Amino acid sequence: MSESPEQHVVDLEAESEWRFELEADENIAVRTLSPDSVYINSEEIPPTTWYPLHRNLKASIYAAQPTKLQVSTPPASNYSSSSTSQSSLVALHLALERIRILARRQLSNGHASSSHQSPNDGPSRGPAIMILGPPSSGKTTVVKNLVNMALGTGMSWTPGVISLDPSSPANLIPGSLSLSTPSHPIPTHHLAHPLGSPPTSVPANTLGADVPTLGWWYGHPEPSNKGVDLWKKLVAGIGERWKERCAKDPTALASGLFVDTPSAFTNALLGTRKDNPKAKYSLVADAVEQLEIDTIAVIGHEKLTIDLTRLFPNVRVIRLPRSSGTVDLDDANRQIVAAAQVRSYFYGEPSLPKEIENLSGRMVAREGNLIPYSFQIGWETLTILRVGEENAAPSTALPLGSSRILSPTRLTRVDPAGPAQITRLLNCVLAVVAIRPGDRIKKKDKGLGTATMVKDEPEGAGQVKVEKVEGPSEETAEGAVEAEISEAADKAQDEGAAKEHTEIKSETDVQDQGQTKDISGDPGAALAEKEHEGEGDGDEDDEEDEDEVPYLEEIGYRETLGFVVITAIDTLRKKYTVLSPSPGKLPSTVAIAGSIEWVDSE
Ligand SMILES: Nc1ncnc2c1ncn2[C@@H]1O[C@H](COP(=O)(O)OP(=O)(O)OP(=O)(O)O)[C@@H](O)[C@H]1O
Question: Domain named AAA+ ATPase: which ranges (predicted)?
Answer without folding.
Answer: 125-322
